[in-house]
């Protein structure tokens, strides 16, 4: 097969879909030495992302999410004589001369319409056309598959669930020098609870702040460290942190290379989201040997399994009680760490690559 993966986004961002694309490409290169791959990159991105001989960089002029993408991208792809085009960023060219596979990570833009800029709303607003145009759809969780069927009428027969995984760098960091370096870089306290994610309403930080405040009156809890960029309506979260007078530290966005040490340094990881397409930080924290408390909403029970303490997203007292258990019960902590490492190991990019390659064949 002659397969192309759209990796243009890697020039513009590191996290999210870009990380998914990078890790999938690396895993495919490990298992597939027969098929020919074109890695579609921004013309400004001069790196060779994958060094395998059957993976070739192909520059494109059309930027991702451009308003003329549906006109110019087909023209750039037409001479390539592709068998399969994989679009990890949801939206394929609707006019094309090859089969299309798309990955849908979540439908937050439909469920939370105020979440995106007008430009992103225009781009992702093509999702219904995309799911009916594509020959195959990858959903990153059963929860996302259900959402696709319910909100876009995507044919269930087209959808295959392929789970993501924590990257190979995510493992317990025990090196004192590395841990000290990350503590100094972000001025971290000796003992802290960690949240990683964009500061926006669906991450439900307001409930976490309330639960954290309650816990501080009944049980000693360490500082809450919030790592993530400011997103949609972040002001409400910042204001609440000030109003509650809770020991909260915002450290901003953290590059991927710092995350394993950051997770490993934390006493507990908390993700109280009301909606996640997959919830990768849960697996990343578990793979680093950090106990996890998360909500029981959307995909998170699939990812967490029996390794985390699960709570209703808006149950302040329930979340406060879970924080106290996870921080105060040492026997439970040891059990959560062991189960978390086992749970994270159930997910692998090698398996994801094998399943994705099978989908390429099915699409043909």
What's the structural blueprint in terms of helices and strands?
Layout: E1 2-6, H1 17-31, E2 36-42, E3 55-60, H2 69-77, E4 84-87, E5 99-104, H3 108-111, H4 118-124, H5 127-133, E6 136-139, H6 142-152, E7 159-161, H7 176-185, E8 192-196, H8 205-218, E9 223-227, H9 234-244, E10 248-252, H10 259-265, E11 268-271, H11 280-287, E12 292-295, H12 300-304, E13 309-311, H13 316-328, H14 330-345, H15 349-363
Parallel strand pairs: 1-2, 1-4, 2-3, 4-5, 5-6, 6-7, 8-9, 8-11, 9-10, 11-12, 12-13
Helix pairs in contact: 1-15, 7-10, 8-9, 8-13, 11-14, 13-14
What does this protein structure show overall?
The protein has 364 residues and is α/β, with parallel strands linked by helices. It has two domains: 180 residues, Rossmann fold; 170 residues, Glycogen Phosphorylase B (Rossmann fold). The chain is built from 15 helices and 13 strands. Helix 7 crosses helix 10, helix 8 packs parallel to helix 9 and helix 8 crosses helix 13. The longest helix is centred in the last third of the chain and has 16 residues.
